[in-house]
Design a protein that fits this description.
The structure holds 2 protein chains of 2 kinds. Chain A is of the alpha+beta class. Chain A has 18 helices and 17 strands. In chain A, a hairpin with a 4-residue loop joins strand 4 and strand 5. In chain B, a hairpin with a 4-residue loop joins strand 2 and strand 3. Classes of the chains: A alpha+beta, B alpha/beta.
Chain lengths: 623, 373
């Protein structure tokens, strides 16, 4: 028998991502370069958005050795005019995995700043070069860090740290990584281009390795209102989340040690005096209102133990068994465990219960969730089969599951608060579409907020026809939380909705030049994969997309029928211009005349008619 | 050869008649052209009315004893963009026909199709241009031959008939149609020629070239004082025009000899009373023409070798039973017998009794019979 011994090692997050980098979009040099660009640009935009700064983002990709064939090392630099990062946070923010500032519940492009660290990690393992971070938070001094990641320890290694004077705030991150620009170039250029459509208030420039410069200046100077951080909606919750919230809500029984006793004495104004148990209780009663929760709990325990400070010092609380109303403690003097019965009539009993068993259900719900007031909380308790005053700390595992299920099922909660969302808005979206495609017709819509599984979302859509748009449409531009989605479009819910549409019904035929822009804003986009490229078909989202698209399509149909008439008129005018001269020629000889008849009047009349219908068409397009 | 004064006057009269006809055609085209010219000049979209040739508008006229178009007509307007193309095509055709008539030049249907390209007029294919030709016939109620447009030739004529050409280069030239034993093909020059003189007393139209040759060899023209015409299957319009003229101008009776099947019967019927296809034209019929054989009843009577009818033969019988012209007389009777026999016999079947049996025995009997028909 062989003696293979299995080793169970805990691995660090860095190690985990190192071995699973495919998950985060770093599967090959092409995809990795594209993903790295995305992560840094999105971080830059997020940083500016959060502080209400009009973003200026500069993206540069340079080959380390331009003559080498792809794939080869590139230096990727993204510079912004955002708030920067305090020097003390920089090593942790860029040198560890799972360190970030984006943990609240609100809409942002990225979740935890994870992707950027992944890019740094990928750069490090492919080129063994440090990441260079330059940051200025005050606009006068700039900290420069060169950092490496200690993958096994998930810790930053500071290679270099210098400071210098500057005149601008902002952050610049530069990494060296193995990439394939010849293959990734199109996607990256598309990404930058499409990002500037959905971020019209940002100026984005891109200097590519071939020396080309792509510049997308801002054409809107107002930033959409920033989202606010809010409490979770009951529909978007699971058992684990509730468990964590309960832990947060509970006060632990304070450890009664010297420090604690000293604190209680001080708060009661008894730092030096040694009073009897009864006297202490009297004092506490008087000062009750001013006491902190911890102190109150200690007083409550003392009231059952009937001990003064001296005695209290010689015991350790072992357990508080509320159901059996027993208090267990270890007596150091006697070196044995003792128990006393607790009298429920004791005025401090409730205090202790609160502490040990947590908040009542209704309080828990109203305090920790959005959209639940006292009335709803009571109604919900009845629906879920719990007593409203049921203590959260006393819920069994099964009850927790029941509660979680009931929270999902209860339908009388108001829809999630959408103030945590930051849609672009109809006007900037329309402006963007018009600027990018110079179309003959544009229509946009922002649907009112809706929710799936407790996560609020808003759908914004635009449709445009003609102008500079290539034929072969619909061309679909998908966005989620202001990120363009470029890969894996086949399985996306937006594509599904678009493909399900019978465009013939909307008078769109043949090889039409038209585009559809869709923007899904949510606190949580239901991506199908970790690579953030395609959105899963949640029925609620699909429905909103469908309704939005239907409304836009109807507007398009109205335009198309006008356009059709104008096209007809044009076609007719062309036919007249072609055939009438021939008819004139033939009838002149037939009639035995020398001069051709004056048929030009007819042509002119038709030209007028044609002009009129063109004007009408333009009127519709402007609407 | 000296021509008598009387003859000379006759020639003059004849050429005057041809000129007259040409003049009429040209006048008519001119008036159509002038109307369109005026419309255009007045800033109006020109249009004209075309009798509808749809099945619903083809009716049988008992008095005329032929199919004619009813009163339904469609307006073809140059304002309508869907009709503009065909309007222009028709205008061009009128213009082209005008030139043909003026210059006394003839053109085949295929020529018309190709000629259009010189004027940047587009026809998808010849059937489109053929259709426009029928449009012109409908509007003017004149056959295309009047505009010097002819189909490819396949029918021929033989017998003692003197004609005088009217086509350019041959004006006044005469010709006797018994000079060449292969017969003369019935083309533009023959159709437009004046019929001067004949010793014949009857016209025998025969369906097949083989039998035509046999008839010439056996001198049917002399033996029975006849003009023999090979219709080459369904008689072309020029042949029908010629038959009509022989009947009307030379006062000759016309008999038709066809295969003993339903198609043969109908070939005779078309000569007699026209086809639905040409319901828009009225000068192509010989209402007094007689079908003398081969009848269905002849098959039994002469014990002719037969072949079975095909399904399409039978279907054709049923179709014709609905035709108003097949409701009585010999037409109905023979059709019914064909249907009963479900067999058919060709003219060549008489060869069973020897090659000359048809001319020696059958034809005389039928000629005799025709007198009483």
């Amino acid at each position: 028998m062989s003696s293979i011994k299995e080793h169970f090692n805990q691995i660090s997050p860095s190690e985990f991502f190192y071995s699973n980098r495919d998950l985060a979009g770093f599967s090959n040099p092409t995809r990795s370069l594209y993903t790295a660009v995305r992560e840094f640009v999105e971080n830059a935009l997020d940083a500016c958005d959060q502080k209400g700064i009009l973003p200026d983002v500069h993206l540069t990709i340079k080959a380390v050795d331009p003559d080498k064939p792809d794939p080869k090392p590139y230096i990727l630099t993204v510079k912004d005019n955002g708030p920067g990062i305090d020097a003390e946070h920089i090593p942790l923010a860029f040198g560890t995995v799972l360190y970030g500032s984006k943990f609240g519940l609100k809409q942002a492009r990225g979740m935890f700043g994870l992707g950027a660290t992944m890019a740094i990690l990928y750069g490090q393992i492919t080129t063994n070069k440090p990441v260079i971070v330059k940051s200025s938070v005050d606009g006068t001094t700039q900290d420069l860090f060169e950092l490496l990641l200690d993958i096994q320890k998930n810790k930053p290694v500071i290679v270099k740290h210098t400071t210098k004077e500057v005149s601008k705030k902002g952050l610049s991150v530069s990494i060296c990584l193995e990439g394939d620009y010849s293959k990734a170039g199109t996607k990256i250029r598309d990404y930058v281009y499409e990002t500037s459509l959905i971020t019209p208030y940002a100026s984005i420039t891109f200097d590519d390795p071939k020396g080309q410069k792509f510049s997308h200046p801002r054409f809107v100077t107002e930033i959409p209102p920033p989202p606010t951080i809010i409490r979770p909606h009951p529909h978007g919750i699971d058992v684990e989340r509730i468990r964590r919230m309960i832990v947060e809500s509970q006060f632990e029984i304070p450890t009664i040690d010297d420090v604690m006793i000293e604190k209680v004495r001080k708060d009661l104004g008894l730092s030096v005096k040694n009073l009897s148990f009864t006297a202490i209780m009297d004092k506490a009663k008087k000062k009750w209102k001013t006491l902190s929760r911890q102190v109150r709990v200690v007083i409550a325990l003392m009231s059952f133990l009937k001990m003064n400070f001296e005695k209290l010092n010689k015991i350790r609380i072992e357990d508080i068994d509320m159901p059996n109303k027993k208090l267990f403690y270890w007596d150091f003097g006697d070196s044995q465990s003792k128990s006393i019965d607790m009298d429920p009539e004791n005025q401090y009993y409730k205090q202790l219960t609160n502490t040990v068993q947590g908040e009542p259900l209704t309080t828990f719900l109203t305090k920790r969730f959005q959209r639940i007031g006292p009335t709803t909380a009571v109604k919900f308790a009845e629906f879920a089969g719990f007593k409203p005053e049921k203590r959260m700390g006393t819920l069994s595992n099964q009850e927790l599951v029941n509660l979680s299920d009931a929270l999902q099922k209860f339908e009388d909660f108001m829809a999630p608060d959408s103030s945590c969302l930051a849609p672009l808005g109809e006007a900037p979206l329309e402006k963007g579409i018009k600027k990018f495609f110079n179309p003959d017709f544009t229509a946009v819509i922002q649907r009112s907020a809706s929710a799936y599984s407790g996560f609020p979302f808003i759908i914004e859509m635009g449709i445009a026809y003609g102008g500079d748009i290539k034929s072969g449409g619909p061309h679909v531009y998908r966005y989620a939380n202001r990120i363009p989605l470029l890969y894996d479009e086949g399985s996306d819910v937006v594509l599904k909705v678009v493909n399900d549409t019978d465009w013939g019904r909307y008078k769109v035929k043949g090889d039409p030049p038209f585009i559809i822009v869709s923007h899904i804003c949510s606190t949580r986009i239901p991506y199908k994969t970790a690579g953030k490229e395609n959105v899963a078909d949640r029925p609620e989202i699909e429905r909103e997309l469908r309704l939005g698209l239907q409304l836009l399509s109807r507007k398009l149909a109205a335009y198309m029928s006008k356009r059709g008439q104008a096209d007809m008129a044009k076609k007719r005018a062309n036919l007249y211009a072609k055939y009438l001269p021939q008819i004139a020629e033939f009838c002149t000889e037939l009639a035995g005349k020398k001069k051709e008849p004056n048929y030009k009047k007819l042509l002119e009349e038709n030209a007028v008619e044609f002009k009129q219908s063109i004007e009408e068409k333009n009127k519709i397009g402007d609407k | 050869m000296a021509i008598s004064k009387k003859e000379q006057t006759k020639i003059k009269e004849r050429s005057k008649k041809a000129d007259e006809k040409q003049k009429n055609i040209l006048e008519m085209l001119k008036s159509h052209g002038a109307k369109i010219y005026d419309d255009l000049d007045n800033g109006q979209f020109p249009k004209f009315s075309i009798p509808s040739r749809s099945v619903g508008n083809i009716v049988y006229d008992k008095k005329l004893r032929q199919y004619i178009l009813g009163t339904n007509a469609a307006v073809r307007s140059s304002r309508n963009s869907a009709q503009l193309r065909s309007f222009t095509q028709l205008m061009w055709l009128a213009f082209f026909a005008n030139r043909l008539t003026h210059e006394k030049k003839s053109s085949t249907l295929r020529d018309v199709y190709y000629s259009s390209q010189a004027f940047a007029i587009e026809f998808e294919d010849q059937s489109e241009s053929d259709n426009i030709i029928v449009d012109l016939e409908s509007v003017t109620s004149k056959p295309r031959e009047d505009f010097h447009i002819f189909p490819e030739e396949r029918s021929s004529i033989f017998g003692d008939l003197t004609i005088e050409y009217t086509i350019p280069g041959y004006e006044g030239k005469t010709m006797n149609l018994s000079n060449h034993p292969d017969g003369y093909s019935i083309g533009p020059s023959l159709t437009t020629a004046e019929l001067v003189d004949t010793s014949a007393e009857i016209v025998i139209a025969i369906e097949k070239g083989g039998l035509f040759t046999r008839f010439v060899e056996e001198q049917v023209d002399k033996k029975f004082k006849s003009i023999i015409i090979n219709t080459g299957g369904q008689a072309p319009r020029s042949t029908r025009t010629l038959l009509k003229r022989l009947h009307e101008e030379m006062k000759l009776p016309v008999i038709v000899l066809t295969d003993g099947d339903v198609y043969g019967e109908h070939i005779a019927m078309v000569i007699k009373s026209g086809s639905a296809n040409a319901a828009h034209l009225r000068e192509l019929t010989v209402p007094d023409a007689k079908w003398v054989g081969v009848w269905a009843t002849d098959i039994e009577k002469y014990k002719l070798p037969t072949i079975p009818m095909t399904e399409s033969d039978i279907k054709r019988c049923y179709d014709l039973q609905k035709d108003p012209r097949y409701q009585d007389g010999i037409w109905k009777k023979e059709l019914d017998v064909f249907l009963k026999l479900k067999r058919k016999a060709e003219l060549e079947a008489f060869s069973k009794y020897g090659l000359t049996n048809i001319t020696d025995k059958y034809l005389p009997q039928k000629l005799e019979l025709a007198k009483s028909l």
